[in-house]
Amino acid sequence: MSVLIFVDIAEGQVKKVSLEALSYGAKLAEQLGTSAEGVVLGTPKEDLAALGKYGVSKIHHVSNPALDHLDAQLYTKVIAEVAGSTGATVIVFPNNMDGKSIAPRLSARLKAGLISGAVALPDTSNGFIVKKNVFSGKAFANISITTPVKIIALNPNAYPVRTGEGTATVAAFEAKVDSPRVKVISSTKASGEVPLTEAEVVVSAGRGLKGPENWGMVEELAKVLHAATACSRPVADAHWRPHNEHVGQTGIAIAPNLYIAIGISGAIQHLAGVNRSKVIVVINKDPEAPFFKAADYGIVGDAFDVVPKLTEAIRKIKA
Amino acid sequence: MKILVCISKTPDTTAKIAFTDNNTKFDTSGVQWIINPYDEWYALVRAIELKEKDASTIVHLVTVGGADAEPIIRKALALGGDEAFRVNADSHDSFYIASQIASIAKEGAYDLVFTGKETIDYNGSSIGGMVAELLDFPYISLASKFELNGTKATITREIEGGEETAEVDLPVVVSAAKGMAEQRIPNMRGIMAARTKPLKVSEPVAVEALTSVTSFGLPPAKAGVKLVPADNVDELVRLLHEEAKAL
Ligand SMILES: Cc1cc2nc3c(=O)[nH]c(=O)nc-3n(C[C@H](O)[C@H](O)[C@H](O)COP(=O)(O)OP(=O)(O)OC[C@H]3O[C@@H](n4cnc5c(N)ncnc54)[C@H](O)[C@@H]3O)c2cc1C
Ligand SMILES: Nc1ncnc2c1ncn2[C@@H]1O[C@H](COP(=O)(O)O)[C@@H](O)[C@H]1O
After folding, report:
1. Which residues form the Electron transfer flavoprotein alpha/beta-subunit N-terminal domain (chain A) (predicted)?
2. Are residues A24 and A155 located together in one domain of the fold?
3. pLDDT truncated to tens, each residue of chain A (319 aa)?
4. Based on the domain organization, do A89 and A128 belong to the same domain?
5. Which of A243, A269, A280, A288 to mutate to test the pocket of ligand 1 (most atoms within 8 A of CB)?
6. Position A187 in a domain
7. A143 touches chain B (CB under 8 A)
8. Radius of gyration of chain B measured on its C-alpha atoms
9. CB burial string B93-112: b at 16+ within 10 A, e below
10. Is residue B92 part of a domain?
11. Within a domain: B240
């Protein structure tokens, strides 16, 4: 019995969502009175022993160039092998893009119940019940996993990263790795930008900004806050902004610590993707905009006037 | 070329979310049902586009649900698609649903299985991956582009802060996200044609569910907005810093 955590890496770097998953898995292991171990696939460029400070005692590392890109089928087989040989009874994934590809496959392979989008530690007082978001963040469900092996995919920004002392032993794991059926031919990464799903602060703007030429002030504000940028659906549909910035029911769902909405009316479909943000600030010239009902702080005013001033004020306190 | 598109029924995006039976059941009273937007706008439309390009392509639809899912599957047929299957079962367990879909998919020997990125009610993003594992097919999730060249597919998927493009030989399971296609409205001809398209109902294969819902809940309501005058952004920054600890 142990808790196994999948540590997702990108270009050799451990993702923040993986640190959250490690912290969560370590806490869960403590709760269950067992140990937490991690599994890393591919070619990390970081010192894996240092992951011990998130609470894992051991890292299983499967090194093989075929694992440098995600092929969910290969990853699943390898993780299943590691889980089998370590006797893992709970397997934790970050519920990010990669986690969403692998965790369901592993669930079907091992016939292990999966909760994807978990937002809290399981209640293990009577069974194994995990809280997850449903109805696009408008509600939650408590779901019981009834199988001996359990899989949890933890939502980004749902569990804080805990750092302590400790180093992990790193063990090379020899796994049989087939040749990949998915051949990655290119990838584009917006360099220097904060990925939206991992961002702690998100600055988002809507149709109130009138046109793509007015996004400079949004980017400025995002820059001083070290924030990611997002937008409402009509903005992405009109190609004012790239579609991967579209948040909401039909775009990406996010849960940053701070969400600043500028010139967005706050339609229910928009709120569905952002209502789990811890603090919401709304800037809108219409005091009747529905978004104010879902906000913690608000300014009724013209974005073109308020946003540059806000950027300056934040720059001052950050200095 | 045979494509299977997985269609699910979800509450309308503006539906009021409430629960009954001691918070164990979704309150369906007054709820309008729609095709899950990812299934309709992206998975289904992309499949129809592939058929429009190559007339020998066959598009089948599958839904796992009770008789009340039939208006939804008829609407999907009106958008396109040649015939539909309904597996007569009501379940919220992803593995149970995936096993039903996999069973239909095996029987029909499809080259391509499309699902939506996620259902907007259960938000599992799980069924596509499970179907792929059960069929032993490769799986590309959150695809924003899908191109076909003979039996080779070129698929772009979202990754954190970017995109990744990969090639894979058919068969494959793909979950469709924004970017795949544009929403369409069914026309009169499609609606008329859908009435007579085959909709085959079958009984579920026996599988154990791996999870069960014990209760639902609503998040605590917000305390109410604190408004700051537009000429005093310093006050907003102070509140965010000192009170909300968000800066
Ligand atoms: C099935 C379905 C799914 C959908 N999914 C999504 C989704 O995922 N995400 C999403 O965002 N939408 C989604 N929508 C669309 C949604 O219903 C709204 O139409 C959309 O969110 C509106 O975008 P907006 O707020 O940018 O624009 P608008 O509604 O046009 O609002 C613009 C706002 O800007 C304000 N404004 C104007 N000028 C200024 C100024 N100078 N300064 C400050 N404020 C100003 C206005 O007061 C107004 O409140 C969906 C709709 C449907 C039917
Ligand atoms: N009951 C169902 N019948 C057919 N397909 C489904 C069903 N539920 C989900 N799907 C498909 O699986 C996708 C992902 O669903 P989920 O894993 O529940 O988020 C959906 O977008 C649908 O394409």
Report:
1. 3-194
2. yes
3. 899 999 999 989 999 999 999 999 999 999 999 999 999 999 999 999 999 999 999 999 999 999 999 999 999 999 999 999 999 999 999 999 999 999 999 999 999 999 999 999 999 999 999 999 999 889 999 999 999 999 999 999 999 999 999 999 999 999 999 999 999 999 987 655 788 888 999 999 999 999 999 999 999 999 999 999 999 999 999 999 998 899 999 888 999 999 999 999 999 999 999 999 999 999 999 999 999 999 999 999 999 999 999 999 999 998 8
4. yes
5. A269
6. no
7. yes
8. 21
9. bbbbbbbbbbbbbeeeebbb
10. yes
11. no
A188 at the B interface (CB within 8 A)? yes
In whole angstroms, give the CA distance from residue A15 to residue A247. 21
Task: Look up residue B21 and give its two tokens.
Answer: 């039976």
> In terms of Cα–Cα distance, which of B180, B92, B24, B192 is closest to A139?
B24
Residue A142, strand partner residues: A131, B215
Longest dimension (CA), chain B: 67
Q: Supply the range of the domain harboring residue B103.
A: 2-219
Q: Domain check: are A146 and A36 in the same one?
A: yes
**CATH no. for residue B79?**
3.40.50.620
Residues A32 and A159 in one domain: yes
**Domain for residue B135, yes or no?**
yes
User: How would you classify residue B101: left for phi > 0, otherwise alpha for psi between -120 and 50, otherwise beta?
Assistant: alpha
Amino acid symbol at A288: E
What is the span of the domain harbouring residue A265? Answer: 196-318
**Confidence check on the interface: ipTM exceeds 0.90, yes or no:** yes
Written as six digits, the tokens of A223 are 């820059």
Is the CB–ligand 2 distance for residue B174 below 6 Å? no
B64 lines ligand 2 (CB under 6 A): yes
8 Å CB contact between A134 and A249: no
Residue of B17, B133, B149 for testing the chain A interface, max A β-carbons within 10 Å: B133
The total number of structural domains that make up chain B: 1
The answer to whether residue A186 is domain-embedded is: no
